[in-house]
């Protein structure tokens, strides 16, 4: 019997039209999207027909991508596919909280809307960018980051680490990498995320989710692996609040997360939402894993049929 993990993508995988197919064909998805639209009017229009620049703004990206991610998971569960573990990359971790029952789904959506605003404000206060660095020795890259005053933040998979920081410092790092013949790719994000520049956003999110009049926090029904620790979430309320809040200003230990999931017996990974970035990370981290992606009705039906076999 396969042990299944749902994985939820983070910023950078967004595109106009994401989630529309599932919205039009899955009743439960439509109902949740319509509820989300009452919380944040205009979200569906941004998702289905927003411009690239509009969707790149963090305050828009996060609620839109949250819905696209969770739509695939809702459709999977509705089709009889249940996860044994869950993990989300950056904002995807808030989706994971909603799917695990740590937060009600609509509360998780409200939280990600606040998270997007807080991170946008932090990004506006300190212009920054992020690049994925390919096939460079980890220790050498970390030393280079220290030299240029930037931060290695997302440990994605063997041979890929994302670096984040101030724009001018990142530009100087790019020059140094080019001189060394190291390949890098700029990411479609709008700020120096997962760095100390996000500390104010972390504190704001901690205050937000700690408001007992707004949020009810529960023990996860399904284990949620945290970006910050690469281990399942704690089962106490304060630990949960600290974990999701501090994630914003700390590194994402994704490679370690995947390895820990595999060690716990997970052999099937389903990326829920747009793109196949996380699927690529799994392929390079967990040899022999079963890897699927669900982003629309066709891919949903295909995955459900495959798993039935």
Account of the 3D structure:
The strands form 2 sheets. This protein has a 5-stranded parallel β-sheet, sandwiched between helices. A 4-stranded antiparallel β-sheet has the order 4-5-3-6. The protein is of the alpha/beta class. The protein contains 14 helices and 9 strands. It has helices at residues 20-25, 27-39, 43-49, 52-56, 58-78, 92-100, 105-125, 138-148, 167-179, 199-209, 237-246, 254-263, 277-285, 297-308, and strands at residues 4-8, 85-88, 128-134, 151-157, 160-166, 184-186, 224-225, 268-272, 290-294. A hairpin with a 2-residue loop joins strand 4 (151-157) and strand 5 (160-166). Helix 3 (43-49) packs across helix 5 and helix 7 (105-125) runs antiparallel to helix 10.
Key traits:
51% helix, globular, alpha/beta, 14 helices, Alpha-Beta Plaits, Malonyl-Coenzyme A Acyl Carrier Protein, domain 2, 4-stranded antiparallel beta sheet, 309 residues, 5-stranded parallel beta sheet, 2 domains
């Amino acid at each position: 019997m396969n042990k299944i993990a749902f994985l939820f993508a983070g910023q950078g995988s967004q595109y106009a039209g994401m989630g529309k197919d599932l919205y039009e064909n899955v009743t439960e998805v439509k109902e949740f999207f319509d509820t989300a639209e009452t919380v944040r009017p205009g979200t569906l229009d941004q998702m289905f027909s927003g411009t690239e620049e509009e969707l790149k703004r963090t305050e828009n990206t996060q609620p839109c991508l949250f819905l696209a991610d969770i739509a695939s998971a809702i459709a999977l569960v509705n089709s009889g596919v249940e996860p044994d573990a869950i993990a989300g990359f950056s904002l995807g971790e808030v989706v994971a909280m909603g799917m695990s029952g740590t937060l009600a789904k609509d509360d998780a959506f409200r939280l990600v809307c606040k998270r997007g605003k807080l991170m946008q404000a932090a990004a506006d206060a300190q212009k920054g960018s992020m690049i994925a660095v390919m096939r460079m020795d980890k220790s050498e890259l970390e030393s280079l980051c220290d030299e240029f005053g930037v931060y290695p933040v997302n440990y994605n998979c063997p041979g890929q680490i994302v670096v984040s920081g101030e724009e001018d410092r990142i530009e100087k790092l790019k020059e140094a990498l080019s001189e060394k013949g190291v390949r890098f790719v700029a990411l479609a994000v709008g700020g120096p995320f997962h760095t100390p520049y996000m500390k104010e956003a972390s504190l704001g999110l901690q205050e937000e989710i700690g408001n007992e009049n707004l949020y009810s926090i529960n023990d996860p029904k399904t284990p949620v692996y945290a970006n910050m620790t690469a281990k399942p979430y704690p089962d106490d309320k304060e630990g949960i609040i600290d974990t999701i809040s501090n994630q914003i200003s700390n590194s994402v230990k994704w490679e370690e997360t995947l390895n820990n999931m595999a060690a716990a017996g997970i052999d099937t990974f389903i990326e829920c939402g747009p793109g196949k970035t996380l699927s690529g990370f799994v392929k390079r981290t967990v040899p022999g894993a079963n890897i699927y992606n669900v982003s629309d009705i066709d891919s949903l039906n295909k995955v459900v049929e495959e798993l039935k076999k």
